[in-house]
Amino acid sequence: SSLNTPVQGWHAAAGDLLKPAASGAKQRVTLDFSYISLLGLGSEEGLGHVVNTGITLPTRAGVFSGSARFLTSPFESLDLGTLAGVNVSFAKDLFPDLLVGAGLGGQFGEDWSAGLDLGFIHLPGKWLFFKDFRWGAAIRGLGKGYTPAEGITSFPPVFTPALGAAFNLVNSRNVLWSFSSDLAFPSFQNIRFSLGSDFTYKDLFTLRTAVLLDLDDMAEKRARSLPLSFGLALKFSTSIRRDKSEVKTSVSAAPLQQGVWGIGAGLNIPIGLVDREAPEITIDTAKESYISPNLDGVLDDLDKELETRGHRFVRYADDFLVLVKSHRAGVRVSQSIERFLNR
């Protein structure tokens, strides 16, 4: 649990481990890699390692994500031994303001685990005085937990309901200052609360801080000496043109139990364009057309070729504001509208 620090966020494939619906609005293929060094700087000495990799694949059906991780820890306070884990998930925007997702994951080492995660994220936008407000809920670890030794809780905890919310306090041309919180009830036997803040300047660098409180650790006097983590992220564009591929680098640090520190770095690489332009719609008007709507079977209908092009999946909205994501389905909607207008 102590490794679930704010290094993992909404923008990485590993974020689906905590928020199964987090990738539902992704438009670009995204690659993710991070490494965390576990340093024994206090009463426990030693060196551990955590390696994470991930990929996010948007499709017309939805967004598929996959991640893999390797961890080795020699510390008694992080008595996990050596393990490897994988996770696959699927997320989708059912509506413009509602994302849903589900994930399957497992870990293998001195023990094994397998579980299902379910969740949703609601994006109402402005709410009260909050800007870009979003909230969600998840149930994590529906299955068997990883318990390599007796007397420790499973990693991650099984049957864990969680609630989360986030909003932007400042959202200007140069500055984005956001806050997020998460409240979880691991195995219905504990309470964990986290509060984080991201400060971004000109979409180039981001400062991150977070506080994590664990009621069980505090009661057993196993809490972190400093329940604070912090990080810095920098973004580089791979092209002068706007909306091209990017490389986001980050470094972070968090104190864990018994003087063990987690210090890490990561790469997040979104590939391709972000679709911010309206689709290009072309209708064939080169030939003269006639219609004779007298129901005699001759020229009762007028058909025109309609071509739609966009950088990504073209979206259409009908009179009931139902979004159609695929290009093929969108063409069918356009043809229906055309037949209605020309009948």
UniProtKB/TrEMBL annotation:
Record protein name field: DUF5723 domain-containing protein
Organism of provenance: marine sediment metagenome
Upper taxonomic lineage: unclassified sequences, metagenomes, ecological metagenomes
